[in-house]
Amino acid sequence: MSNTKERIISALIMAAIVIAAVLGGRWTTLLAVWAAGVLCIDELLCNFAKVKRSDFVFKYVVIFFTLFFVTVNALNARLSLYFFTIASLMLNLFLIYYLFKIPMEKAFMKNSAIKTPGLIAALVILPLLSFGIHFETENWRQILGMLLIVTYSMDTGAWFVGKNFGKHKLWPVVSPKKTVEGLIGGMIIAALCGSLAWYYFFDQFRWYYSVIFALCGMMSQVGDLVQSKLKREFEIKDSSNLIPGHGGVYDRIDSLIFLSPFFVIVVKYLGQQFTI
Length: 276
Fold this sequence. Notes:
Blueprint: H1 3-24, H2 26-48, H3 56-74, H4 78-101, H5 108-115, H6 117-120, H7 122-129, H8 140-165, E1 169-171, E2 175-179, H9 180-202, H10 207-234, H11 249-269
Antiparallel strand pairs: 1-2
C-alpha cells in the first residue's frame, strides 16, 4: 500500500474516532482528549527523553496529568481553565522564541529533557489541561469543529499543494519537505474552509473572517515547525510509528494544541461567548 493510501485510510479512521467522541458528548470527547494526552506524554518521554515506562518520572507525569485533567474538568474549575489557557499562551510565546531565536546547535530542548525529563511533557500537558475551555460555550461542538477544520484544512492543503506545486523550500534546516507554496496554499484553503464552516455553523460572515482563519492556519503551521525542530534536535523522524502514514499522536495534534489557546481569543472576538 502506498504512503498516500495509508495516510488517507488512517486519516479517515482518526476522523471517525473524533466524530464518534464528539457526538457522544462532552465526557466522551474529554476522554478522547485525555487518551491523546497520555499517548503524547508516552511519546515525548520515551522517544524524545529516552525515559523508560517503568521509571518513576514516567508514572509520576502520567498520574499528574490524569489527576489534574479529571479535577479541572470534573469539578468544572473555571479559574483553572483560565489559568492553564494563559499558561499555554505563555508556553507558545516561548516556543516561538525557541523556533526563531535559539540555534538548533545548542540542543537547548534536548539538554533540558536530559536534565529534567518531565519538562518536555509540558508541551502537551499545558494545552490539553486548558482544552476544556472550549466546552465553556453552548456551541462547543461547533467550536471544536472549527478548530479541527482550520487546523487540518491547513495541514492537508499545505501537504497537497506542496507535494504537487512546491518548488521553494520554506525552511530546509527545520523541515526539509515544507515549501513556501505549500504554506500559502494551506493558508488559502484554511481561510476558505474556515469561512464556509463558520457561515454554516453560525450564519455569519465578514470578509476579514477569511484573513483571521488564514492566520490561524499559519499559526498551526508554526506549531508544526516547532515540533519539526524538536525532532531534528532529538534526531528522530516521527514521535512514534503508532499511526500508519502519519507517525505518532503528537505528530498529528502538535498543530492543533498549539493553535488551541489562540483560537479561544479568535472565537471570543468573533462573538461566541464563553461562560467563564
